Amino acid sequence: MEINDMILLSIDDHTIEPPNMFEKTMPAKYRDEAPKLVKDADGKDMWVFQNESIGVPGLSAVASWPKEEWDFSPTDLSEMRPGCYDFDARVADMDANGMLAGMNFPTFAGFAGTHLAKMPNQELTAAAISAYNDWAIDELAGSHPGRFIPLGILPFFDIDRAVKEIHRIAEKGCVAVTLPEAPYGIGLPSFASGHFDPIFQAICDTGLTPCLHIGGAFGLLQRPAEALSDDIIMLAPQVMTVTTTDIFLSGILRKFPDLRFALSEGGIGWVSFFLDRFDRHMTNQSWTHLDKLPPGKTPTEVWRERFLACFITDPTALRLRDRMGVETIAWECDYPHSDSTWPFSPELLHAELVQAGCSDDEIDAISWKNVANFFRYDPFEHIAKEEATVGALRARAVAAGVDTSETSKDEYKRRALAGANA
């Protein structure tokens, strides 16, 4: 398969929320109390809700910056590439990268909505969460048909509210929800406790897919005082292994036969080891009488039926695709973070798939078909297949004059100030 013939769906990108996102979606009686983007004492952007700072607009939103400027520090909107927060510009950046559609996790709200959900006024918080979802479904995905896979957040501090929100957003066309990948790591009960069972039942009833993005589980790892940002970057696969072990041992896969999980930003290099270890555990350690998995199923069979994991670049793991199951592998772009391969994703992905010996059918499965099947998402509902390829999308970007050249944050700030003063 040629690069230009590929179709790309990413299940891990990131929203840098625009300052006006709550203007249309927050209920009128709460509009004055909606989360707001304001300047802190140093003139940097921050989100404030219920009189507290709850997050910053960009962490590692470094798309197109020179590498010497990259870091995890809070980033002002004016310093970012506009595609981070302006979603007309984001679609243009997706075109330039040959990417048809992406699923975007929140930023200031927390990857699983945990920053937003922790606020004390639960009624106001629930209203803000619903408003966030309406923006993600109606404003983001609705204004760009076929380009964004709708992902919701939940008021999981109130199980009844969360169940109602699941049904509400499913009726609006949402296909997935993001959950804390290790809830006990942020002071919530574990998946094994039964606390989340009504949420899992509602997810199964509506056909939504729960997505687990690494984040809160890092708090489970005790690191030395000398630990660097490199620790977080390197340990992502290990964190995802902890999350998946929790799920396998929780009993929820036995209790809810239709429950499936999509895993983001943990890569796939750990999967073969995990399956080897767990398959042997079930026989060699039979004395534990483990009965948490679906009856008669091996761990490998459970994995292949119930999980989808994504990678940015994992050349060695792709050579083991038959061990984990090609149907369990998807791709992620991670725009606009430092791990992202934008704007050269097609070249890098194609090279790894070809070097691993993938057939054309396997390339299609990994680059888009597995996502479409797992999320029950039709990528060609709004865009014809022949217009959805890398080559067709990049031709649109060229015609539109999309500039993907390296640009410093100071230059973006200069342009933003010039535009504001024009």
CATH architectural category: Alpha-Beta Barrel
Number of strands: 11
CATH superfamily: Metal-dependent hydrolases
Biggest sheet features: 6 strands, parallel
What is the structural class?
Answer: alpha/beta
Beta-strand residue fraction:
5-15%
CATH topology type? TIM Barrel
H/E series: EEEEHEHHEHEHEHHEHHEHHEHHHH
As for the number of domains, it is 1
Order of strands across the main sheet: 6-7-8-9-10-11
What value does the Rg take, in angstroms?
A: 21 Å
Return residue spans where pLDDT drops below 50 for at least 5 consecutive residues. none
CATH class: Alpha Beta
Query: Average pLDDT, to the nearest integer?
Result: 95
How many H/I helical runs?
A: 15
How far apart the termini lie comes to: 47 Å
Shape: globular
Helix-residue proportion: 25-40%
Task: Write the topology of this structure.
Elements: E1 9-14, E2 36-39, E3 45-49, E4 52-55, H1 87-96, E5 101-105, H2 114-117, H3 122-143, E6 151-152, H4 159-171, E7 176-179, H5 197-206, E8 209-213, H6 229-250, H7 252-255, E9 261-264, H8 271-284, H9 299-306, E10 307-311, H10 315-318, H11 321-324, E11 329-331, H12 345-355, H13 360-374, H14 390-400, H15 409-421
Parallel strand pairs: 1-5, 6-7, 7-8, 8-9, 9-10, 10-11
Antiparallel strand pairs: 2-3, 3-4
Describe this entry's structure for a reader.
The chain has about 425 residues and is α/β, with parallel strands linked by helices. It contains 15 helices and eleven strands. The protein has a six-stranded parallel beta sheet with strand order 6-7-8-9-10-11. The chain has a three-stranded antiparallel beta sheet with strand order 2-3-4, with no helix packed on it. α1 packs across α14 and α4 runs parallel beside α5. It is globular, with a radius of gyration of 21 Å. The protein starts with 8 loop residues before the first strand and ends with a helix. The mean pLDDT is about 95.
